[in-house]
Amino acid sequence: MRASDAERERIAELLREAVAEGRLDMDEFDQRLETAYKARTHGELEPLVQDLPAPGSAVAPVGSSAPAPLGGSTANWPARIGGPATSTGGFALWGGFNRKGRWTVARKFTAFAMWGGGEIDLREAHFEDREVVIRCFTIMGGIHVTAPPELNVEVRGIGIMGGFGEGSNEDGEISPDSPRVRITGFALMGGVGVDRKRTKAERRRLKEAKEAELEARRRRELEGPDDGGSGEGRKKL
């Protein structure tokens, strides 16, 4: 079966996600990407992703019309749901607390900060259940929650002479396999902020992947179109 331009792009997207997750190094990514754009048949495309699971699920068939799911740091959500909680709350009084890295969020997590601050980082966290509630209460203090763009987060809180809401958001589609996190509570003369962003390591890997893809495209344009090239070369004709 002949491969279409859309199928080549779908494989390229899977390769970009794989390098972002650390499954491929840059040399492997560069080689597979170059092969993907030159592939003429499904048989040439399939080996490029046979050893790479799609983020959060099995690899979609090459001929599928559905786009490849995005994942990044949120890959393999089912493996990150379940297990005993390692923390059920955080407390700060004239000081601070933080929960970040690999930790397991309790089904109900309560955070309180008074004349202090707290940091809750969910980007590498596991979750006790698929439904999680994080309750944040601040009095003349602040709590900052950081979530990956693909996590299903619902923010419901009240700010009284303060603020409770979402801040910066990086691009990303919410994964259907992710847990549902509800952030509630109130901020009195203080603030609770929720940002959606990737880790520095993941942003660096994605940047390197995009640069490698641009370099591969430039090389193809310099080499000129051939029978097995992507649609770009044919359009130039």
Automatic annotation (TrEMBL):
Biased composition annotated in UniProt, kind: Basic residues: 197-207
Pfam families: DUF1707 (PF08044)
Domain DUF1707: 1-53
Residues spanning the membrane: none
Annotated Basic and acidic residues bias: 208-223
Positions of the UniProt region annotated as Disordered: 194-237
InterPro entries for this protein: DUF1707_SHOCT-like
Name of the protein in question: DUF1707 domain-containing protein
Organism of origin: Streptomyces rubiginosohelvolus
